[in-house]
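FW: tagging you since you asked about this chain on Friday. Here's the raw sequence from the shared folder, copied in full. Didn't touch anything.
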Amino acid sequence: MMQRPSQQQGPRMGGPIGGQMMGAPTSKVRDFKGTMRKLIEYLGAYRLPIIIVFIFAVASTAASIAGPKILGNATTKLFEGVMAELNGSGTIDFDYIGRIALITLGLYLVSALFAYIQGWIMANVSTDISYRFRRDLSEKINRMPLKYFDGTTHGEVLSRITNDVDTLNQTLSQSMTQIITSLVTVVGVLVMMFSISWAMTLVALVVIPLSMVTVMLIVRQSQKYFKQQQDYLGHVNGHVEEMYGGHIVMKAFNGEAESIQKFDQSNNTLYDAAWKSQFLSGLMMPIMMFIGNLGYVAVAILGGYLAVRSVITVGDIQAFIQYVRSFMQPITSLANISNVLQQTAAAAERVFEFLDEEEEVTETQSPVKLKAVQGHVEFKNVHFGYDPAKPVINNFSAEAEPGHKIAIVGPTGAGKTTMVKLLMRFYDIDSGSILVDGKDIRDFTRKDLRKLFGMVLQDTWLYNGTIMENIRYGRPDATDEEVIAAAQAAHVDHFVHTLPDGYNMVINEETSNISQGQMQLLTIARAVLADPRILILDEATSSVDTRTEILIQRAMDNLMKNRTSFVIAHRLSTIRNADLILVMKHGDIVEQGNHEELLAKQGHYYELYMSQFKQREEAVSA
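HL: got it, structure written out here
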């Protein structure tokens, strides 16, 4: 049974602000093209739905584009009818105009229906992409080495799983359909405009270079702020998660002012980045509208001149002005999408960075399977350092016979807990070997190796569930009777009956409705239920009172019978009956033997033991 480190999730931060997600610090997206290439490859699984969306987008846009041209015929017919009535040579053909109006209405209805279908498909695609990203990130977390999480805050990891993926979901669902529709609209409208008048079309196109220059200038400035947003949201999340998870300690040491100051610094940077990015993207629309209005003026003047000279009809002018409007809208949309794409790239880059992080050493292709576990453990010339340049364990060698109790003692920082992490393959050694029943632990799968061990740590971990469920975590298929038996062996049963709802009492997310000592007892019960061949106890009784410690020690002695046990303890009185005591200092074994042998040597162990004995005498006399 593996016990996970204690942690509580911090509150989720961030959300849409003006349709965009906030987010963190680099000047800009480091590799926009590479990130978008990865995102397109990731979208390869949705090739068919995207093709269908493209077809419906083309059909919807084509129907919408055809409307003004057909409606222009009705305008021309109406104008001709009015002029004929004024001259007394004819009347307005309302039947023809009515048919044109019905045809135009039908086209617009078809366009709206196809737009609805493509939006529905893209909503499904973008939601499924979010699902895949979260699933891949979740699976990636379980393949990541612990050293990554040693240097990364929980809030930063949560930000990538929640905020960055949400940003991708929102921007993809909005931008993909807009890109397709806008591109098709630009091409289709351009064709229709040239079919009406090439001269008017060229005048209308003059505004495009001016628009593109404006877009490039704004995007160049806003790009870095969108990236800053995405990063600094992770910093804010990390700080809030840390302060919320340890708010009792923070308050106990009067750290509120410092916490608020640190939060304000990150939050102010986040505010500045969010404000600047929103302001710059907000400039896009009014500037584009101003430039577009200049185009309308030029087109109206030229169109009137050509109509007077009978080069084009009045209906053509009406249709052309509609097309100019339709032409400028997708240009404006593409300009806005450029900002959205920057935001998409910023979020995608952070997600892909996490997915590309170095993983644990690949599992062996031909893993060892032990039919019967004896519990013989041997360390051979083990060297290890969290930083290879700074070794923590130097040439460690020791042997644990099956069924023996091995105690590891030494001052803080000697490497005691590190040896346990290496034994469980939370980290892989730099050199040497660790053997279980003569087999190198690297020849096991991590899952099979960890099944051999039961672990109880000083840092307890319980989740938001009932007491029964938390104990059963050690062996999910255990019956209620087996869970209760394990609880009785760990002296949990007696206090459970004093709690409301007993074994069905739900432990809250902060585990604040039970005491620290009760939490420790529950984790011990979990290890008892797992019934492993090898036990690891890291200061397992450090959080309980003296009376409870005695009860737990008796239960542990019974539990450790006929099992290989590694006990890390600072209180040497708890390991006097160990078969072998390893005394560590600076990553080396400086002494080994049983309690009596080590006392007789009067070395490091003797000094440690006597210092604790003297402390107890002083405490009693005081």
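FW: Confidence is low (pLDDT under 50) at residues 1-27, 617-622.
HL: agreed, and The chain has 19 helices and twelve strands.
FW: great, closing this out.
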